[in-house]
Write a structure and sequence with these properties.
By secondary structure, this protein is an alpha+beta fold. The chain is built from 13 helices and 13 strands. The strands form 2 sheets. It has an 8-stranded antiparallel β-sheet with strand order 1-2-4-5-12-7-10-13, sandwiched between helices. It starts with a strand and ends with a helix.
Length: about 325
């Protein structure tokens, strides 16, 4: 279990087989902050694979014993990273549940999992190639993605798999400065496959959405106005709402951004700011408004979250589980 860095593209390797049996699943489960993982079969839990950090894309080939990955709405809200998984299931079976529908996915199959939406995946022992895309990075070429589930078996998916596997063989000697190029190659191949499979359609609104999000990010917390952004972008209120329809509208999108920032602050054991201070910092009217919105979004109170993280100690050493979780949650 190790991490490689230096002048080459960062790689994180995980292999639970060298650990005591009682520690194997916990070690695997620690890699994911984006889902609650549960072991299906008591006893040893074998998981091995390499993850390559390409910036806007993380790519991994992994073999793992049966488990359940649960993402409910409070957990989705609590994770600030916004990314999409394109999974190519090479061996095994996954029962995928989202939006009240259950789909049985059997290898070989490719599917999309949106980490901005709740879902549950229950697997047998599987082997798969996974591409973790930053939403903005992928949607730059495919337009807004509002799709979860299996993709039609188009030839472009076979091409994506073959090139990704060959690229992975080359990555150990590839320079870190080349990572954006390799990420773009795989992104464009994935985009072509998704469009061909009917999972996405390029729209003219994409560049407008990017401009709108950049404007929102530049405003001091709590000062965003609909009139200001429509004037800046030269669009109507109805167009603005359609841009952020997936997020419940512009103001809902902005409020969730601020809530996630407050959530991150409260997870930090070294942050001793009061709720009054946090409310002012992140643009909430007062402590009561922050408390109410926080509970609605995350299913717990700030004090409960802080109590949970109170005993957390900052370690000078990082495990591969820590590195994988950090890499995925830092996809840019």
């Amino acid at each position: 279990m190790h991490s490689d860095s230096g002048g080459t593209i960062p790689k994180i390797a995980m292999d639970t087989s060298s650990l005591p049996e009682a520690e194997q699943f916990a070690y695997w489960a620690a890699h994911s902050g984006g889902a609650r993982l549960q072991q299906l079969v008591p006893g040893p839990f074998l998981a091995r694979g390499d993850l390559w950090n390409l910036g806007g894309l993380q790519v991994t080939v992994i073999e793992v014993d049966p488990f359940v990955a649960i993402r409910d709405r409070p957990l989705v809200n609590a994770v600030s990273a916004d990314y999409l998984q394109l999974v190519q299931l090479l061996e095994g079976t996954i029962i995928f549940e989202c939006e009240g529908e259950t789909t049985k996915l059997e290898a070989p199959v490719s599917f999309i999992r949106d980490y901005g939406q709740p879902s549950t995946a229950t697997s047998t022992r599987i082997r798969c190639l996974i591409l973790y895309f930053s939403r903005d990075f992928l949607e730059e070429v495919v337009g807004p993605v509002s799709f979860q589930g299996p993709l039609a078996p188009v030839p472009e998916l076979t091409l994506l798999h073959d090139i990704a596997v060959e690229m992975i063989r080359f990555l150990p000697v590839a320079m870190a400065s080349s990572a954006p190029l390799y990420a773009t190659i795989l992104r464009d191949l994935a985009a072509s496959a998704m469009v061909r499979a009917g999972a996405s359609q390029r729209t003219d609104q994409l560049s407008l959405l990017a401009a709108a999000k950049a404007y929102v990010a530049a405003q001091p917390p709590g000062t965003l106005s609909v009139a200001g952004i429509t004037a800046e972008l030269g669009i109507s209120r109805s167009v603005l709402y359609r841009l952020f329809e997936r997020d419940g509208g512009l103001l809902a999108y902005d409020r969730m951004r601020r809530l996630r920032a407050a959530h991150r602050a409260m997870c930090n054991p070294l942050n001793t700011s009061t709720l009054v201070e946090l409310a002012a910092r992140y643009g909430f009217r007062d402590q009561a408004a922050l408390l109410r919105s926080f509970r609605n979004a995350f299913g717990s109170t700030p004090s409960e979250l802080r109590q949970h993280h109170a005993g957390t100690e900052l370690s000078a050493t990082r495990t591969p589980s820590d590195d994988i979780r950090h890499a995925i949650e830092s996809i840019d």
